[in-house]
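Hi R.,

Here's the chain you asked about this morning:
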Amino acid sequence: MRVGLHDAERDYLKHKRFPNYALMKISAYHKARGDSVEWWDPITSHTFDLIYSSKIFDFTPENPYLPPSAIRGGTGYPDIPINQTLPPEIDAAFPDYSIYPECDYAIGYITRGCPNRCPWCVVPAKEGGIKPYRAWEQIVRPDTKKLVLMDNNILASEYGILQLESLIGTGYEIDLNQGMDARLVTDRIAGILARLKWIRFIRFSCDQIPQIEAIERAAELLEGYGKKPYNLFIYLLVTKDVENAAYRVERLKRLKGISIYAQAERNDRKGIIPKALQKEFAQRFVYGRCYLKESWEEYLTRHKEKRLQNEKVSTREEARQLAMKRLRQKNKSEYKASFTLTGDTRLVAGVTVEVSGYGAFDGKYIIETATHSVSKSGGYKTDITLRRVLEGY
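And here is the predicted structure, written out as tokens:
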């Protein structure tokens, strides 16, 4: 049997280097059965007995020349059930790395799934709750000491943590390329992470303001074991609330040397398409490393004249909305406040509170920073800075 493989991202993203895990397993399965496996191409499409196509990303275009008989899979195909999995006999196969000769590392999962239900993430719907999947000994290759793990929340699993611990001292260099949840980092886990050999970075995710303090705490714990902030890499989700992302960047860059990678939120299945400003923030402000020398507000001011010249409207209603947006940006920082209060663990960045008893300053505020401290003289105290929530725009 002649089997054809189609990697949609390999076609579309010309500089793509990361191998397709499912296609490598499919290749290994068919080769073990004595079948011939090759990359599919539309010119010789009619000569294949079986064709598999995998598409990971929503934005990757579908190949119009794929025959209707092609077996399609991956989260990038919106008409394919999100929880579709490989047949057990194919999933059990060891990946065929020969179809990606430039790949000099092993890839795989120790755990699958995630216990969280983040609205922007497809993992719980696709894989379910966190569960053991493989031991690292089943994933590594005999020809390389590099191991890239794609687990989505390995620290939420005691099995996953024990697997990481058992990698210490083996000589394998690892990468957890999906970003860990810093909220789960304890002193024990920091010690494990610090003793592992990393290909390059220790990666965490920061998709919400409340995660900032967890990352700062994880950085502090890791530094106690000799890992500096420049060893850390942070994935940062950019929703339509770009100012929220800008605040996270300003806080995170206080960790000197830390690396940040921003990704504009996109989910075609839910109709979420990033706006131009989200993409500019991710691609030019963060990826272009402008964030290292200026704030997002300073960046916008620097580009203001050009932006105003290029921002066009076609209706009176669009003009009104643009004017209100500009007014909101001007008024955002009009009311700010700071308080020192009796310690309260509920007061964290991103939480909204009501301020009363101050006349014209009464109203709803958002906590921008919260610092908790304990001293013998003052006891437990919380220092907060607030910005008034704008309403009526």
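One quick note: The chain has twelve helices and 17 strands.

Cheers,
M.
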